[in-house]
């Protein structure tokens, strides 16, 4: 290896990003920190795994057919959620590589700490917290809105594992009974006018997200990585059709 190669590796050490990810639950790598090697860089954080469609890289950009749906390939708002709660386990980390960020004032990826939300519930809503600890919740995911194939799982909102606690939350699931709801599912909310503990949990989670989340507008070329067992994320509505990101799931 040439001296230049050694200097290159030293300059591009990502130790501080690993630290930020574990301390805060999310980090942003600037383009110069990973020098175009997205896959090689992500492999420092985990193993890249297939998503709902079997692909390891998924385009988050506007596609026709989803105009009325809270779906990643629409320009609509997506409510607070953890990714792929129907997986056992869900992807440990999520990454979004931004090719072109929305320039319309929307399109923020919001993040908030789900463990902190649960800790607050334990203090302020002990009965609800107990209910969550004792009651598994069903999660359903249609791979793509309107398709027949579905995954389902019954899991606790917080599942302890040897590798860490897995937190699950899905606005779409709690309101519409599916992580990727269809237009029919959207006609009625299961949370509005419901007094069930799960509906209360959903409302409190949304309120916590609104009050405490950090909106991130990923700069062009940068890579946002977060801990999907810990953080709740969401997306604000946007109108710039050129917004274009690639999503990765890491085990
Ligand atoms: O578009 C975004 O910023 C994130 C969308 C989202 O939640 C996802 O793709 O999982
Ligand atoms: Fe998501």
CATH topology: Double-stranded beta-helix
Radius of gyration: 19 Å
- CATH homologous superfamily name? Clavaminate synthase-like
| Overall pLDDT confidence | 94
Number of helices: 8
- CATH first level: Alpha Beta
Count of all domains: 1
String of helices and strands: HHEHHEEEEEHHEEEEHHEEEE
Assign a percent range to the helix content.
25-40%
First and last CA, distance? 31 Å
Shape: globular
Q: Main sheet?
A: 6 strands, antiparallel
Low-confidence stretches: 1-11
Strand segment tally: 14
Protein name: TauD/TfdA family dioxygenase
GO molecular function, one term: dioxygenase activity
Cofactor: Fe(2+)
InterPro entries: AlphaKG_dependent_hydroxylases, TauD-like_sf, TauD/TfdA-like
Secondary-structure blueprint:
Elements lengths: L2 H9 L3 H10 L1 E4 L1 H4 L3 H5 L5 E2 L8 E4 L16 E4 L11 E8 L8 E5 H11 L1 H9 L2 E6 L7 E6 L2 E4 L2 E4 L3 H6 L20 H16 L1 E3 L6 E5 L3 E5 L8 E7 L1
Antiparallel strand pairs: 1-12, 2-14, 3-14, 4-13, 5-12, 5-14, 6-11, 6-13, 7-8, 9-10
Fe (ii) ion binds next to loops.
Describe the structure.
With 251 residues, the protein is α+β, with helices and mostly antiparallel strands. It has a single domain (42-250), classed as Clavaminate synthase-like (Double-stranded beta-helix), CATH 3.60.130. It has helices at residues 3-11, 15-24, 31-34, 38-42, 114-124, 126-134, 171-176, 197-212; strands at residues 26-29, 48-49, 58-61, 78-81, 93-100, 109-113, 137-142, 150-155, 158-161, 164-167, 214-216, 223-227, 231-235, 244-250. The strands form four sheets. Strands 1, 2, 3, 5, 12 and 14 form a six-stranded antiparallel sheet that branches. A hairpin with a 7-residue loop joins strand 7 (137-142) and strand 8 (150-155). The longest helix is centred in the last third of the chain and has 16 residues, at 197-212. It is globular. The protein starts with a helix and ends with a strand. 2-oxoglutaric acid binds at residues 60, 72, 78, 83, 96, 109, 233, 235, 247.
């Amino acid at each position: 290896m040439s001296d230049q190669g050694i200097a290159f590796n030293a300059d591009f050490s990502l130790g501080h990003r690993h630290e930020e990810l574990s301390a805060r639950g999310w980090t942003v790598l600037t383009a110069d920190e990973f020098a175009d090697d997205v896959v090689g860089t992500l492999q420092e954080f985990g193993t890249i795994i297939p998503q709902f469609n079997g692909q390891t890289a998924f385009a988050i950009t506007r596609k026709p057919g989803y105009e009325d749906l809270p779906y990643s390939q629409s320009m609509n708002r997506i409510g607070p959620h953890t990714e792929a709660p129907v997986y056992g386990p869900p992807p440990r980390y999520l990454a979004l590589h931004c090719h072109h960020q929305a320039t319309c004032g929307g399109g923020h990826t919001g993040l908030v700490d789900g463990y902190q939300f649960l800790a607050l519930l334990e203090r302020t809503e002990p009965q609800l917290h107990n209910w969550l600890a004792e009651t598994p919740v069903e999660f359903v995911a249609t791979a793509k809105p309107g398709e027949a194939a579905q995954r389902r799982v019954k899991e606790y909102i917080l599942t302890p594992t040897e590798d860490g606690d897995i937190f699950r939350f899905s606005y779409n699931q709690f309101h519409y009974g599916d992580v990727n709801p269809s237009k029919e599912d959207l006609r009625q909310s299961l949370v509005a006018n419901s007094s069930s503990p799960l509906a209360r949990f959903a409302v409190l989670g949304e309120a916590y997200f609104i009050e405490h989340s950090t909106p991130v507008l990923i700069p062009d070329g940068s890579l946002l990585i977060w801990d999907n067992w810990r953080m709740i994320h969401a997306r604000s509505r946007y109108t710039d059709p050129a917004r274009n990101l690639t999503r990765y799931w890491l085990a």
